Amino acid sequence: MYLLRKILTEGGNAFEPPKEDIKMKRSIFTALAVAAVLSCTACGKTEVGKADVPVSTAGTQTTASPDTASLTDEAASAETATDTYQDTTAETSAAKEVTTVTEEAVSVGGGENTEASAATQPQTQAQTRSRDTAPSPGDADYAPAPVQYDIPGITYIQGTLIANKSYSLPADFNPGLDSTCENQFYKLQNDAAQQGLNIWFASGFRSYDYQAQIYNNYVARDGQALADTYSARPGYSEHQSGLAIDVNQIDDSFIGTPEAVWLENHCHEYGFILRYPRGKESITGYQYESWHIRYVGTDLSYAVHDSGLTLEEYFGIDSAYKE
Prior knowledge:
Layout: H1 2-10, H2 19-43, E1 45-48, E2 51-54, H3 68-109, H4 112-127, E3 155-157, E4 160-162, H5 179-194, E5 201-203, H6 208-222, H7 224-227, E6 244-247, H8 258-266, E7 272-276, H9 281-284, E8 289-295, H10 298-307, H11 311-315
Antiparallel strand pairs: 1-2, 3-4, 5-6, 6-8, 7-8
């Protein structure tokens, strides 16, 4: 290349052939240079690592200059531009791919809350299940009737123990608090607590002798006639049956409280009835007691509650002392 440039620039200073030869050689060398340049341009490829990358020639003028340094610079510049374009394209494609995958995952999976909601749905349905009808044996909410005793002096009507002013219990009958009654009360108490209500056990089983002490104290304070309206004589108390429970305050201060209202509306769902309801004093023989519930099992508690009747009205019996 040096010799070519020397010949082209210096002419006859290098050696002195005839002028016609010099002109012919210049023409030949010029043609060869142009052909070499055109050959490189027409090829259109530059080796980059191990991959072939197309080189754009748009906007570039090709001359017949024999200066190969200029061609090398242009090729290097094209290679750099190509690498930059490839890297940018690859990063953009990767970003799009990640975005697409993320969007598809959210669309298909629905997020974490969807799975959590599906998992808790059965529990929510169980908590809000309707209790409008009496449960059947085998249901989780079913409460069986209390145990029956084959003891002389105890009165059963259609399988239900009766203890009121007309039907007494033997003095030596001491069954204690019925276990099913106790368990059902604690279920009632727990469910009430979930509603923000506080219902506690105040009084349960009372023996004949203990009831005698309570009644005699009331008679001494208020007289027998008044005491008979709110306290049972010994042997006539439902508490001796082991099937009655008093809750919270055992007086009129409990009336109208949220706990009293809830108890009246829901105790039948656990096998209890409100034994001495308002407006039924002449039938039951006792004043309204919002705190006194009696366990009978859900078969009967739903029937009595739905009827709006007292136990005396439901069975067609009375409640009155003989003397």
